[in-house]
Amino acid sequence: MSSFFKRFLFIHNLTEPVAKNIFSIQKGENHMTQPNESYPKEMVTIEKTTEDSEEKQVVTVINNEYEEEAVEVAIAYMNAFNEGDVEKLSTCINFPHARVGANGNLVVSEKADALMSPDFFEEFRKRYEWNHSCWDSREVIQSIENKVHLQVTFSRYRVDGSNIGTFPSIWVITKQDNHWGIKMRSSFAF
User: Fold this and answer.
1) pTM for the whole structure
2) Residue 1 resides in a domain
3) Is residue 3 part of a domain?
4) How far apart are the C-alpha atoms of 11 and 116, rounded to whole Å?
5) Burial (CB count <10 Å: 0-12, 13-18, 19+), residue 49
6) What pLDDT is stored for residue 9 in this prediction?
7) Is the link from the previous residue into 96 a cis peptide, with omega within 30 of 0?
8) Residues near 60 by Cβ (< 8 Å), separated by ≥ 6?
């Protein structure tokens, strides 16, 4: 897999001018934000459809630390999905995990090994010619100190940059046993 889909994250304060910090985000990495930075902030990822395509910025406004934690989890999940790493994906999930798919069926995964089969990405690439996914939008729509609702849209692409599909979704990200993870997803993705 090409590395062009690696995402970079800027975090900057909306009330004071501060330098934008760039880093590749993985769940659990330290922030590279200014000390004592206040909210609201913007979390900006840079998305590319192909190695040669124009960069697109996807901006998420966050108003507190729990929204920041939740958006970090979403970004880490997308990164792990693009890496095809089932183990990393499971670190972004709180179990039991529920997903309502495009057909309306509810799938509940009680444990990490029930989330995806070990050969999921191999089959997914074969079936859809999938190469990577990019964010189109991320918006915090509700939050409390241990739960955040995100309205997200992402697109899946082939290696040539042609679009397989664009999928609006609602993700519920929770703090469970002191761990932020995706608890529930409802999407139109296959």
Assistant:
1) 0.85
2) no
3) no
4) 32
5) buried
6) 63
7) yes
8) 42, 43, 44, 71, 138, 139, 140
